[in-house]
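Quick one, T. Sequence first:
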Amino acid sequence: MQLKQPLWPRFLPTATVLGCATLGPLGRNLPAPGTWGSLAGLMYFTVFFADRYGVIGTLLLSAMGAYVAVAICGEAEFRLGRRDPGEVILDEFVAMPLCFLGWPALLDPLPPWAVFLLGFGLFRLFDILKPLGIKKLQDLPAGWGVVVDDLAAALLTCAVMHGAQALWHAYGAAA
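Structure tokens:
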């Protein structure tokens, strides 16, 4: 199966495509746009996902958001004439909720603010370093390469946080 760029964004005005891909002024006017996109994604998770949908609902909504992001980010690449432009931050935004899959379990032993800070920090680290083959995901065609590496960084963040929480319960709580 070959991944293809969705066609529907071709019919949208350039201002709409770029406005969505850059989250308006966040991607265009601020330094470190990926960090701002991630912060906006953290707020998106907090307002729309935390304590609402559970793992299955979050996965389904994230899959829909990822599809839209693939379409918009790929079209933005085309219109800007650059591969994975830094100002395109919709990918970070839609990936952030995946960092917090299983949200209620992550709240023991840490308070919500600490889980948010840890998830945000780990996601930015993994998004920048792209460890464990995540970097190769950028080679996927069009918008897929822009978005899928961020989804992988978010899932790695989630796995590390749940792994640390499990180790805490196995060893730290007993001490």
